[in-house]
């Protein structure tokens, strides 16, 4: 039974990858490339690279604890097989990250990640229900769904930022702000049903501008408290906060634009690679945003 489940998950992963339009043989090459980039990050920034690895794996492990998913597994498998599957999933998700951390002799971070993989196998988290209010409007919907899937990561990032303020580590605070912004960008990965667009009476330009305004407002609800506190405590370094804020003001509209360039399919490898490139080098957005904005307008004319 367990072997059949793992084979099914492998088949689902391969189908998701081939849906990007890339041949399956490219997958190992991309995986090795991603591992090399993470390895390089650890070489250049061992502390912040370790934080990034831990937080990324934390979110993946958290997603695997979703209640409906785990209830299905409990109803399908006996108790022993259920926990075996959960442990195997968590080990497979974190194995490469643990190996990279060990390669740099970051024993403590590797131990923490391994401990999280074991602990999360026995946890189940239920997403916030409709009765619990959120600071976000229902339209657009991205932050409602995204927040309920990542609220624990947001809490952890705020706690790390608080530690950064307490330890007078300004770089850690900016790292947490960047992590929150990246989390918000990932909210735009999933497309809405096409009839949502059919019901809209806006022009493509009006539709995108409304998405930009709402997305920026909702993201700023997360990051502005930290940035304002940063500018107040580290008044001599306010320009760093301004640079991060400027990047957010460009990255959110760019992520929204890429979503509607790819619509109605999900954002895949071509869009993700461009987004990662821009996240690494902010000024590139200035050149690419107008190009992709026009492509998004052209695509939206088919639905609005």
Automatic annotation (TrEMBL):
Transmembrane region positions? 21-42, 48-64, 85-102, 108-129, 150-166, 172-190, 215-233, 239-262, 274-294
Q: Does the keyword Transmembrane helix apply?
A: yes
Any idea which UniProt keywords this protein has?
Membrane, Transmembrane, Transmembrane helix
Presence of the UniProt keyword Membrane in the record: yes
Q: Which PROSITE patterns match?
A: PROKAR_LIPOPROTEIN
Q: What is this protein called?
A: ABC transporter permease
User: Which taxonomic lineage is given here?
Assistant: Bacteria, Pseudomonadati, Bacteroidota, Sphingobacteriia, Sphingobacteriales
